[in-house]
## 1
Amino acid sequence: MQNLLKSGIMYVDHPHKAIILEKVELSDVDRAELQSHYPYMDVKLNELSVQEERLLLFHLRGMTKAAAGRAAGYADAEHVYKIFKKPAIQKALAHLRKEFRESIKFDKQQATSMYLEAHRKSVTSTEEKNVVDSLCKLHGLFAPESGTQININVDSIERLEKLPDSELLKIAGVDNQYLLPKADEGA
């Protein structure tokens, strides 16, 4: 599957002309690999022409439908769009995209490796600290902050501003004795 979708294509679709920055070639091996997926796609071996297979492969490698059509040798873009509506092409695209999504596995281990590589390449201590923080978050090493949360329903802010401290402490659920200094127990 990875061979079907190998990247490295540098293709620019310009409104007035198409510019291929790197020549893209498909081999018989690419076509053979595509055909090896036919039984899983519910596509018969000769259901797609060689040109349609090339169109499909170019499109899977990142080209737009029109660009893939030109690369596969089609002169008319409208004809290319009609080909993409064929059931066999639709089934092939759906299957190969699904398989490609399943082949991309990004998990905690890969993220950790990438963070460690970033740490190795970091230039400043700030960059190192940021990577370490990110690793700690990823692996759940930060203890959640256990701050006290107080919810107060207030009718008006002006009313609260006029209340004495003792009343504000009662609303917050704290005793008046909270503000008084404690006497030394040993004295």
## 2
Amino acid sequence: MSTAIPSSRNTRKALIGFVTSRSGDKSIKVTIPYKTPHPLYHKVINRKTVVHAHDEKNETKVGDKVEIMETRPMSRLKRWRIISVVERTVGAAAEAISEKDVAETVPTKTTRSGASAPAAGAPAAGAPAASAPAASA
């Protein structure tokens, strides 16, 4: 899970995780998933560690797989920095949509084609169908 990078100073942890948030300029959140067995039942449990990291070049996007390394404190929460982007995310860039865009694409009662008043002979959608008279025996 973690590897030490040899250097003349000291050994620093390096981890691999996924970018889950771009909170500000040169700041990202990295989620590091791992599995651990339950102490009593021995079922494998998925766990995660979320760390704040420094992205000097603003090169990462949400979903990228990145390698991060321990560093000096950059801010109140940031103690990690990006070493490299291991794998880029596949797909289009995330783009915010408005309520108007959603309303245009999602059919509703008022925008559905043929949503005019029901025919006189047909029962309404929520009304129960007329039942036949009960036969007496």
